[in-house]
Recover the amino acids of this structure.
Protein backbone atom coordinates (compact mmCIF):
# COMPACT_ATOMS: atom_id res chain seq x y z
CA UNK A 1 0.00 0.00 0.00
CA UNK A 2 1.52 3.36 -1.02
CA UNK A 3 1.08 6.17 1.43
CA UNK A 4 1.89 9.76 2.12
CA UNK A 5 4.72 11.09 4.28
CA UNK A 6 2.53 11.80 7.32
CA UNK A 7 0.63 8.51 7.15
CA UNK A 8 3.93 6.58 7.01
CA UNK A 9 5.14 8.48 10.06
CA UNK A 10 1.94 7.66 11.93
CA UNK A 11 2.13 3.96 11.05
CA UNK A 12 5.80 3.75 11.98
CA UNK A 13 5.25 5.56 15.27
CA UNK A 14 2.40 3.25 16.25
CA UNK A 15 4.37 0.15 15.22
CA UNK A 16 7.44 1.26 17.20
CA UNK A 17 5.21 2.19 20.14
CA UNK A 18 3.80 -1.34 20.14
CA UNK A 19 7.13 -3.13 19.65
CA UNK A 20 9.02 -1.21 22.35
CA UNK A 21 6.11 -1.49 24.77
CA UNK A 22 5.87 -5.23 24.18
CA UNK A 23 9.59 -5.90 24.68
CA UNK A 24 9.90 -3.77 27.83
CA UNK A 25 6.65 -5.24 29.19
CA UNK A 26 8.07 -8.76 28.74
CA UNK A 27 11.24 -7.76 30.59
CA UNK A 28 9.17 -6.19 33.41
CA UNK A 29 6.97 -9.29 33.67
CA UNK A 30 10.05 -11.48 34.00
CA UNK A 31 11.82 -9.43 36.63
CA UNK A 32 8.68 -8.39 38.57
CA UNK A 33 8.63 -11.25 41.12
CA UNK A 34 12.27 -10.63 42.07
CA UNK A 35 11.73 -6.85 42.25
CA UNK A 36 8.66 -7.25 44.48
CA UNK A 37 10.61 -9.52 46.84
CA UNK A 38 13.46 -7.00 47.00
CA UNK A 39 11.14 -4.03 47.49
CA UNK A 40 9.56 -5.74 50.51
CA UNK A 41 12.83 -5.07 52.37
CA UNK A 42 12.68 -1.32 51.69
CA UNK A 43 10.63 1.43 53.28
CA UNK A 44 7.05 1.27 52.05
CA UNK A 45 7.14 4.65 50.29
CA UNK A 46 10.32 3.76 48.36
CA UNK A 47 8.91 0.33 47.50
CA UNK A 48 5.70 1.93 46.18
CA UNK A 49 7.72 4.36 44.03
CA UNK A 50 9.73 1.46 42.60
CA UNK A 51 6.57 -0.50 41.74
CA UNK A 52 5.07 2.57 40.05
CA UNK A 53 8.27 3.07 38.02
CA UNK A 54 8.22 -0.59 37.01
CA UNK A 55 4.55 -0.39 36.01
CA UNK A 56 5.01 2.76 33.91
CA UNK A 57 8.37 1.75 32.42
CA UNK A 58 7.01 -0.02 29.29
CA UNK A 59 4.73 2.88 28.33
CA UNK A 60 7.32 5.53 29.22
CA UNK A 61 10.08 3.77 27.26
CA UNK A 62 7.80 3.33 24.24
CA UNK A 63 6.82 7.02 24.28
CA UNK A 64 10.45 8.09 24.76
CA UNK A 65 11.69 6.00 21.82
CA UNK A 66 8.93 7.30 19.55
CA UNK A 67 9.14 10.97 20.56
CA UNK A 68 12.91 11.27 21.00
CA UNK A 69 14.23 8.92 18.33
CA UNK A 70 11.65 7.65 15.85
CA UNK A 71 9.93 10.92 14.94
CA UNK A 72 13.09 13.13 14.83
CA UNK A 73 14.98 10.57 12.73
CA UNK A 74 12.06 10.29 10.30
CA UNK A 75 11.59 14.07 10.01
CA UNK A 76 15.30 14.70 9.55
CA UNK A 77 16.30 11.82 7.29
CA UNK A 78 13.22 10.77 5.32
CA UNK A 79 12.97 12.69 2.02
CA UNK A 80 9.63 14.47 1.64
CA UNK A 81 7.35 14.26 -1.37
CA UNK A 82 7.94 10.62 -2.33
CA UNK A 83 5.44 7.85 -1.92
CA UNK A 84 6.48 4.54 -0.46
CA UNK A 85 4.85 1.21 0.27
CA UNK A 86 3.97 0.22 3.80
CA UNK A 87 4.42 -3.51 4.40
CA UNK A 88 1.63 -5.62 5.84
CA UNK A 89 3.77 -6.43 8.90
CA UNK A 90 4.23 -2.76 9.71
CA UNK A 91 0.51 -2.13 9.22
CA UNK A 92 -0.37 -5.02 11.53
CA UNK A 93 2.00 -3.75 14.22
CA UNK A 94 0.60 -0.23 13.87
CA UNK A 95 -2.95 -1.58 14.20
CA UNK A 96 -1.98 -3.46 17.37
CA UNK A 97 -0.29 -0.35 18.78
CA UNK A 98 -3.37 1.76 18.02
CA UNK A 99 -5.63 -0.90 19.54
CA UNK A 100 -3.56 -1.20 22.74
CA UNK A 101 -3.40 2.56 23.36
CA UNK A 102 -6.97 3.15 22.17
CA UNK A 103 -8.24 0.45 24.50
CA UNK A 104 -6.42 1.86 27.52
CA UNK A 105 -7.57 5.42 26.75
CA UNK A 106 -11.17 4.23 26.36
CA UNK A 107 -10.92 2.33 29.64
CA UNK A 108 -9.49 5.40 31.38
CA UNK A 109 -12.38 7.52 30.08
CA UNK A 110 -14.90 4.92 31.29
CA UNK A 111 -13.32 4.71 34.75
CA UNK A 112 -13.14 8.50 35.04
CA UNK A 113 -16.82 8.79 34.14
CA UNK A 114 -17.74 6.19 36.76
CA UNK A 115 -15.68 7.98 39.38
CA UNK A 116 -17.15 11.38 38.47
CA UNK A 117 -20.65 9.96 38.69
CA UNK A 118 -19.91 8.58 42.16
CA UNK A 119 -18.37 11.88 43.37
CA UNK A 120 -21.38 13.76 41.96
CA UNK A 121 -23.70 11.48 43.94
CA UNK A 122 -21.70 12.15 47.09
CA UNK A 123 -21.70 15.90 46.40
CA UNK A 124 -25.50 15.93 46.19
CA UNK A 125 -25.87 14.65 49.77
CA UNK A 126 -22.82 16.15 51.45
CA UNK A 127 -22.37 18.60 54.25
CA UNK A 128 -18.92 20.17 54.66
CA UNK A 129 -16.98 20.32 57.93
CA UNK A 130 -13.45 20.64 59.26
CA UNK A 131 -12.38 17.87 61.64
CA UNK A 132 -8.86 17.35 63.03
CA UNK A 133 -7.54 19.94 60.58
CA UNK A 134 -9.07 18.23 57.54
CA UNK A 135 -11.80 19.73 55.37
CA UNK A 136 -14.19 16.92 54.54
CA UNK A 137 -17.47 16.00 52.96
CA UNK A 138 -19.76 14.27 55.40
CA UNK A 139 -22.14 11.84 53.71
CA UNK A 140 -25.40 10.64 55.21
CA UNK A 141 -26.28 6.99 54.55
CA UNK A 142 -24.28 4.61 52.38
CA UNK A 143 -27.25 3.20 50.47
CA UNK A 144 -27.74 -0.29 48.96
CA UNK A 145 -26.89 -1.92 52.29
CA UNK A 146 -23.21 -1.08 51.84
CA UNK A 147 -20.87 -0.12 54.67
CA UNK A 148 -19.91 3.48 55.45
CA UNK A 149 -17.28 5.25 53.36
CA UNK A 150 -13.97 6.79 54.32
CA UNK A 151 -12.17 7.66 51.11
CA UNK A 152 -10.12 10.23 49.22
CA UNK A 153 -11.63 10.81 45.78
CA UNK A 154 -10.51 13.05 42.93
CA UNK A 155 -7.29 13.58 41.03
CA UNK A 156 -6.10 17.18 41.22
CA UNK A 157 -8.25 18.51 44.06
CA UNK A 158 -9.05 15.33 46.00
CA UNK A 159 -11.94 15.39 48.43
CA UNK A 160 -11.98 13.59 51.73
CA UNK A 161 -15.30 11.73 51.96
CA UNK A 162 -16.48 10.38 55.32
CA UNK A 163 -19.81 8.79 56.24
CA UNK A 164 -21.55 10.30 59.26
CA UNK A 165 -21.69 6.79 60.77
CA UNK A 166 -17.87 6.72 60.94
CA UNK A 167 -17.64 10.18 62.49
CA UNK A 168 -20.20 9.24 65.12
CA UNK A 169 -18.76 5.84 66.00
CA UNK A 170 -14.96 6.35 65.97
CA UNK A 171 -13.29 7.92 69.03
CA UNK A 172 -11.46 11.20 68.31
CA UNK A 173 -7.94 9.69 68.26
CA UNK A 174 -8.96 6.93 65.82
CA UNK A 175 -10.82 9.33 63.55
CA UNK A 176 -7.83 11.72 63.48
CA UNK A 177 -5.50 8.82 62.59
CA UNK A 178 -7.83 7.64 59.81
CA UNK A 179 -8.05 11.16 58.38
CA UNK A 180 -4.25 11.51 58.53
CA UNK A 181 -4.01 8.28 56.50
CA UNK A 182 -6.29 9.61 53.77
CA UNK A 183 -4.48 12.97 53.74
CA UNK A 184 -1.22 11.05 53.26
CA UNK A 185 -2.73 9.51 50.10
CA UNK A 186 -3.64 12.98 48.85
CA UNK A 187 -0.17 14.38 49.61
CA UNK A 188 1.44 11.48 47.75
CA UNK A 189 -0.84 12.08 44.70
CA UNK A 190 -1.89 8.43 44.82
CA UNK A 191 -5.07 8.93 42.77
CA UNK A 192 -3.06 10.69 40.06
CA UNK A 193 -0.63 7.75 40.03
CA UNK A 194 -3.64 5.42 39.73
CA UNK A 195 -4.76 7.43 36.70
CA UNK A 196 -1.30 7.15 35.08
CA UNK A 197 -1.38 3.39 35.62
CA UNK A 198 -4.77 3.25 33.92
CA UNK A 199 -3.60 5.27 30.92
CA UNK A 200 -0.47 3.15 30.43
CA UNK A 201 -1.48 0.13 28.35
CA UNK A 202 -1.07 -3.32 29.85
CA UNK A 203 -3.63 -3.37 32.65
CA UNK A 204 -3.84 -6.99 33.69
CA UNK A 205 -0.40 -7.77 32.24
CA UNK A 206 1.35 -6.89 35.49
CA UNK A 207 -0.96 -8.15 38.24
CA UNK A 208 1.90 -8.73 40.64
CA UNK A 209 3.25 -5.19 40.23
CA UNK A 210 -0.25 -3.68 40.47
CA UNK A 211 -1.01 -5.60 43.67
CA UNK A 212 2.38 -4.78 45.18
CA UNK A 213 1.95 -1.07 44.36
CA UNK A 214 -1.49 -0.99 45.99
CA UNK A 215 -0.13 -2.76 49.09
CA UNK A 216 2.99 -0.60 49.46
CA UNK A 217 0.95 2.58 48.88
CA UNK A 218 -1.37 1.64 51.75
CA UNK A 219 1.61 0.80 53.96
CA UNK A 220 3.28 4.11 53.13
CA UNK A 221 0.11 6.03 54.05
CA UNK A 222 -0.17 3.91 57.22
CA UNK A 223 3.41 4.91 58.12
CA UNK A 224 2.68 8.59 57.57
CA UNK A 225 -0.57 8.39 59.56
CA UNK A 226 1.18 6.84 62.55
CA UNK A 227 4.27 9.07 62.70
CA UNK A 228 5.17 11.25 65.64
CA UNK A 229 3.65 9.52 68.67
CA UNK A 230 3.82 5.95 70.04
CA UNK A 231 0.02 5.88 70.49
CA UNK A 232 -0.77 6.82 66.92
CA UNK A 233 -0.06 3.40 65.33
CA UNK A 234 -2.32 1.74 67.92
CA UNK A 235 -5.10 4.29 67.39
CA UNK A 236 -4.85 3.83 63.67
CA UNK A 237 -4.85 0.01 63.93
CA UNK A 238 -7.98 0.26 66.10
CA UNK A 239 -9.58 2.55 63.50
CA UNK A 240 -8.81 0.02 60.74
CA UNK A 241 -10.49 -2.79 62.69
CA UNK A 242 -13.51 -0.65 63.61
CA UNK A 243 -14.09 0.51 60.02
CA UNK A 244 -13.59 -3.04 58.68
CA UNK A 245 -16.31 -4.24 61.09
CA UNK A 246 -18.75 -1.77 59.54
CA UNK A 247 -18.53 -3.66 56.22
CA UNK A 248 -17.16 -3.00 52.75
CA UNK A 249 -17.94 0.42 51.31
CA UNK A 250 -18.60 1.32 47.67
CA UNK A 251 -15.54 3.16 46.38
CA UNK A 252 -15.00 4.42 42.82
CA UNK A 253 -11.92 3.09 40.99
CA UNK A 254 -10.05 6.40 41.12
CA UNK A 255 -10.20 6.76 44.90
CA UNK A 256 -8.37 5.42 47.91
CA UNK A 257 -10.38 3.86 50.71
CA UNK A 258 -9.29 3.13 54.27
CA UNK A 259 -9.95 -0.62 54.09
CA UNK A 260 -10.06 -1.13 50.33
CA UNK A 261 -8.17 -4.42 50.44
CA UNK A 262 -9.68 -6.62 53.15
CA UNK A 263 -7.11 -9.36 52.48
CA UNK A 264 -4.29 -7.04 53.52
CA UNK A 265 -6.01 -5.87 56.73
CA UNK A 266 -4.34 -8.38 59.04
CA UNK A 267 -0.86 -7.59 57.70
CA UNK A 268 -1.48 -3.85 58.07
CA UNK A 269 -2.72 -4.10 61.64
CA UNK A 270 0.13 -6.38 62.71
CA UNK A 271 2.62 -4.12 60.96
CA UNK A 272 1.28 -1.10 62.88
CA UNK A 273 1.48 -2.93 66.20
CA UNK A 274 5.10 -3.98 65.71
CA UNK A 275 7.91 -1.71 66.85
CA UNK A 276 8.74 0.53 63.93
CA UNK A 277 11.85 -0.56 62.02
CA UNK A 278 13.62 2.68 61.11
CA UNK A 279 16.67 0.81 59.89
CA UNK A 280 15.00 -0.39 56.69
CA UNK A 281 17.32 0.59 53.85
CA UNK A 282 16.46 3.28 51.37
CA UNK A 283 17.26 1.88 47.94
CA UNK A 284 19.88 4.58 47.21
CA UNK A 285 22.03 2.30 45.08
CA UNK A 286 18.99 1.26 43.02
CA UNK A 287 17.85 4.83 42.49
CA UNK A 288 21.38 5.90 41.50
CA UNK A 289 21.64 2.90 39.15
CA UNK A 290 18.30 3.65 37.50
CA UNK A 291 19.12 7.36 37.09
CA UNK A 292 22.55 6.57 35.60
CA UNK A 293 21.05 4.03 33.16
CA UNK A 294 18.30 6.47 32.15
CA UNK A 295 20.90 9.25 31.69
CA UNK A 296 23.18 7.02 29.61
CA UNK A 297 20.27 5.91 27.41
CA UNK A 298 19.12 9.51 26.96
CA UNK A 299 22.64 10.60 25.96
CA UNK A 300 22.85 7.70 23.52
CA UNK A 301 19.46 8.63 22.08
CA UNK A 302 20.55 12.20 21.37
CA UNK A 303 23.72 11.21 19.47
CA UNK A 304 23.46 12.13 15.76
CA UNK A 305 24.53 8.60 14.80
CA UNK A 306 21.56 7.16 16.70
CA UNK A 307 19.12 8.91 14.37
CA UNK A 308 20.81 7.38 11.29
CA UNK A 309 20.71 3.90 12.83
CA UNK A 310 17.09 4.44 13.86
CA UNK A 311 16.21 5.57 10.35
CA UNK A 312 17.79 2.45 8.86
CA UNK A 313 15.74 0.30 11.25
CA UNK A 314 12.57 2.23 10.39
CA UNK A 315 13.21 1.67 6.67
CA UNK A 316 13.35 -2.06 7.32
CA UNK A 317 10.26 -1.93 9.49
CA UNK A 318 8.19 -0.06 6.88
CA UNK A 319 8.97 -2.78 4.29
CA UNK B 1 -11.85 -30.33 23.05
CA UNK B 2 -11.10 -33.46 25.02
CA UNK B 3 -7.41 -32.97 24.31
CA UNK B 4 -7.40 -29.66 26.19
CA UNK B 5 -9.48 -30.88 29.07
CA UNK B 6 -7.33 -31.17 32.18
CA UNK B 7 -7.57 -34.53 33.86
CA UNK B 8 -8.82 -34.36 37.41
CA UNK B 9 -6.07 -35.68 39.65
CA UNK B 10 -8.45 -36.81 42.37
CA UNK B 11 -7.88 -37.08 46.09
CA UNK B 12 -4.73 -38.62 47.49
CA UNK B 13 -4.64 -41.70 49.66
CA UNK B 14 -2.79 -41.79 52.97
CA UNK B 15 0.43 -43.25 51.53
CA UNK B 16 0.30 -41.02 48.45
CA UNK B 17 -0.07 -37.97 50.69
CA UNK B 18 2.88 -39.07 52.84
CA UNK B 19 5.04 -39.57 49.73
CA UNK B 20 4.03 -36.16 48.34
CA UNK B 21 4.88 -34.50 51.68
CA UNK B 22 8.39 -36.03 51.50
CA UNK B 23 8.89 -34.80 47.96
CA UNK B 24 7.44 -31.33 48.68
CA UNK B 25 9.85 -30.89 51.56
CA UNK B 26 12.88 -32.54 49.90
CA UNK B 27 12.55 -31.45 46.27
CA UNK B 28 13.43 -34.72 44.53
CA UNK B 29 14.23 -38.26 45.60
CA UNK B 30 14.60 -41.83 44.37
CA UNK B 31 12.44 -44.73 45.59
CA UNK B 32 14.96 -45.73 48.26
CA UNK B 33 15.17 -42.14 49.67
CA UNK B 34 11.39 -41.96 49.93
CA UNK B 35 11.14 -45.42 51.54
CA UNK B 36 13.73 -44.41 54.17
CA UNK B 37 11.89 -41.21 55.05
CA UNK B 38 8.46 -42.82 55.49
CA UNK B 39 7.26 -43.14 59.08
CA UNK B 40 6.45 -46.85 58.81
CA UNK B 41 8.72 -49.34 57.01
CA UNK B 42 7.27 -50.39 53.67
CA UNK B 43 8.46 -52.69 50.90
CA UNK B 44 10.54 -51.08 48.17
CA UNK B 45 8.04 -52.24 45.54
CA UNK B 46 5.09 -50.68 47.42
CA UNK B 47 6.82 -47.30 47.44
CA UNK B 48 7.82 -47.73 43.80
CA UNK B 49 4.21 -48.50 42.81
CA UNK B 50 2.96 -45.48 44.74
CA UNK B 51 5.47 -43.18 43.06
CA UNK B 52 4.57 -44.62 39.66
CA UNK B 53 0.87 -44.03 40.36
CA UNK B 54 1.55 -40.41 41.35
CA UNK B 55 3.63 -39.96 38.19
CA UNK B 56 0.72 -41.31 36.10
CA UNK B 57 -1.68 -38.94 37.87
CA UNK B 58 0.54 -36.11 36.68
CA UNK B 59 1.65 -35.05 40.14
CA UNK B 60 5.31 -36.04 39.71
CA UNK B 61 8.03 -35.67 37.13
CA UNK B 62 10.70 -38.30 36.83
CA UNK B 63 14.07 -38.63 35.14
CA UNK B 64 16.50 -41.49 34.98
CA UNK B 65 19.64 -41.12 37.08
CA UNK B 66 22.14 -43.98 37.27
CA UNK B 67 19.65 -46.75 36.40
CA UNK B 68 16.99 -45.49 38.84
CA UNK B 69 14.25 -42.91 38.53
CA UNK B 70 14.41 -39.70 40.57
CA UNK B 71 11.00 -38.19 41.22
CA UNK B 72 10.17 -34.53 41.78
CA UNK B 73 6.79 -32.80 42.37
CA UNK B 74 5.28 -31.22 39.29
CA UNK B 75 3.13 -28.84 41.39
CA UNK B 76 3.95 -27.05 44.62
CA UNK B 77 1.79 -27.90 47.63
CA UNK B 78 0.02 -24.56 47.23
CA UNK B 79 -0.75 -25.16 43.54
CA UNK B 80 -2.03 -28.66 44.27
CA UNK B 81 -4.29 -27.46 47.08
CA UNK B 82 -5.63 -24.70 44.86
CA UNK B 83 -6.32 -27.18 42.07
CA UNK B 84 -8.10 -29.54 44.46
CA UNK B 85 -10.22 -26.70 45.82
CA UNK B 86 -11.08 -25.65 42.26
CA UNK B 87 -12.13 -29.20 41.33
CA UNK B 88 -14.24 -29.49 44.46
CA UNK B 89 -16.02 -26.18 43.89
CA UNK B 90 -16.57 -26.89 40.16
CA UNK B 91 -18.02 -30.28 41.07
CA UNK B 92 -20.48 -28.69 43.48
CA UNK B 93 -21.41 -25.87 41.13
CA UNK B 94 -22.08 -28.32 38.32
CA UNK B 95 -24.53 -30.23 40.50
CA UNK B 96 -27.84 -29.31 42.09
CA UNK B 97 -26.29 -28.12 45.34
CA UNK B 98 -24.62 -24.93 44.09
CA UNK B 99 -26.85 -22.68 46.24
CA UNK B 100 -25.99 -24.72 49.33
CA UNK B 101 -22.28 -24.45 48.57
CA UNK B 102 -22.42 -20.69 48.00
CA UNK B 103 -24.37 -20.04 51.21
CA UNK B 104 -21.93 -22.28 53.16
CA UNK B 105 -18.98 -20.37 51.68
CA UNK B 106 -20.50 -16.97 52.47
CA UNK B 107 -21.23 -18.10 56.02
CA UNK B 108 -17.73 -19.53 56.46
CA UNK B 109 -16.08 -16.36 55.11
CA UNK B 110 -18.29 -14.21 57.36
CA UNK B 111 -17.34 -16.29 60.42
CA UNK B 112 -13.70 -16.18 59.46
CA UNK B 113 -13.85 -12.37 59.03
CA UNK B 114 -15.47 -11.93 62.43
CA UNK B 115 -12.94 -14.25 64.06
CA UNK B 116 -10.08 -12.40 62.38
CA UNK B 117 -11.42 -8.99 63.42
CA UNK B 118 -11.87 -10.23 67.03
CA UNK B 119 -8.29 -11.48 67.02
CA UNK B 120 -6.97 -8.19 65.62
CA UNK B 121 -8.97 -6.22 68.18
CA UNK B 122 -7.49 -8.35 70.97
CA UNK B 123 -3.99 -7.60 69.68
CA UNK B 124 -4.74 -3.85 69.56
CA UNK B 125 -6.02 -3.91 73.17
CA UNK B 126 -2.94 -5.84 74.29
CA UNK B 127 -0.65 -3.31 72.63
CA UNK B 128 -2.56 -0.43 74.20
CA UNK B 129 -2.19 -2.00 77.67
CA UNK B 130 1.52 -2.55 77.02
CA UNK B 131 1.96 1.13 76.12
CA UNK B 132 0.06 2.23 79.23
CA UNK B 133 2.27 0.02 81.44
CA UNK B 134 5.39 1.62 79.93
CA UNK B 135 4.23 5.16 80.85
Amino acid sequence: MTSSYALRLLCLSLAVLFLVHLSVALAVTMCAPAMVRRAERWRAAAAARMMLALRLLPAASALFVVLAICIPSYLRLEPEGMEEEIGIGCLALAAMGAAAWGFSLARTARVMLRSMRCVRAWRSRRSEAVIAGSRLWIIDGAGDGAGPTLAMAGIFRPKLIVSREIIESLPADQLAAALRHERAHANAWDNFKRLLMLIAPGAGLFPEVDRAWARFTEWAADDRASEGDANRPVSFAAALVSVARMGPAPVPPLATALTANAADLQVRVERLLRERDESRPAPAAWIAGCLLTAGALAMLAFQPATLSVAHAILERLVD
Amino acid sequence: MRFFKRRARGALGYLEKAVMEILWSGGNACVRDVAEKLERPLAYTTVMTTLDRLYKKGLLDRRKFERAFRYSPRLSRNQWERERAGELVSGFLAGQSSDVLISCLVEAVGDLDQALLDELERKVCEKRRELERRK
In short: The first strand of chain A starts at residue 2 and ends at 3. The beta strands of chain A are 2-3, 84-85, 126-131, 134-139, 150-153, 159-163, 255-257.
